[in-house]
Amino acid sequence: MASPLADRIRPETIEDMVGQKHLLGENMPLRNIIASGTLPNMIFYGPSGTGKTTLARIIAKTTDRTLRKLNGTNASTADIKDIVAQLGTLAAPNGILLYLDEIQYFNKKQQQSLLEYIESGKITLIASTTENPYFYVYSAVLSRSTVFEFKSITPEEIVPAVKRGFAFLEKEQNCKISVSDDVCADIATASGGDVRKALNFTELSVLAAKPDENGNKTITEEEVNALTGGNAFRYDRAGDEHYDVISAFQKSMRGSDPDAALHYLARLLEGGDLPSAVRRLMVCAAEDVGLAYPMIIPIVKAACDMALAVGLPEARIPLADAVILVATAPKSNTGEAGIDAAMADVQKGNYGRIPRCLQNKHYDGDDVKNKGQFYKYPHSFPHRWVEQQYLPDALLGRQYYKFGDNKTEQAAKAYWDAIKGKK
Q: Is the pLDDT of residue 234 over 60?
């Protein structure tokens, strides 16, 4: 069985790679480090199909190091020791470059086993991960490595790789392959920034095309769209992408941008993550709109209940309505700020005894000279309000809630200022 097209035409030089110009362009940091021949331990962080493995191979070849590759999903400390045992032998005359793919799957003990070798310089480590290394890589390994972030590759950058793939297949299959620039662009766009996926689509489109009477093939947009439909979206419900999307979702609603909010809602729903969409939507209604439009909370709750009841794909409709409502509503976080300030006092032990007038009815002890609760029932006074102490003595004068500058809260402020005799 032939290896995938991405492996068969894997770039041999940095110049042949697509994307990552911020790292590999002329006079860029990583490009200069490779050219120096003195390699630090490195961590390549970024989505799959962006050139991490390819660059590790090129670095090994450029620096004349023996490349050994392990995958964190199935490698063990014994595998590392076997590789180290090759040092100083004919198998690794100029040293070893260890490429550890998916390092996030190595546990702490396994990652610690690398320290002895990377500190002594016996091996040079290039670890790759699709997850944030500052969360998933052991701090001692991280402190001894330089992190380089690989970014998703744009469709424009992927197009040359797609064209190179068609040219390679044309020679390999010894037939004429006719393909338009629009088809190449469609494949590049559908790959979602993943060159490997784009080349898989390229090869599939050739395999699926029916040859004419001369054995030649024409790749049509219709055939490509049939192969790539629904494949462009990249979303991992257990990885960084998940947290980035839900963070962007709430921040877009908070920032009053309904278009961006709908975009991130679409990404959540396309990934089948209805629970996260519902949870963040309800949180945002209370946290970011809150007292500026209090009725939004039951409205959004009803929309979320409806979405969960009907499920996808219909759930998108009430959720879209609610997202637009939250994004375009006036904003206030005074409720959140108030409770956070109050909880901070309680957590620091700053609270004190509850005033006697607010305590539950009970008998006073013999040491109390002026016995009685002396609670004033507000409904017995004009405007249903009477001045009395509510905060403990230790917190008298503390203000947790401050009226927001929106119409709803300012109306409440004006009402109570008038009743309480404030100017």
A: no
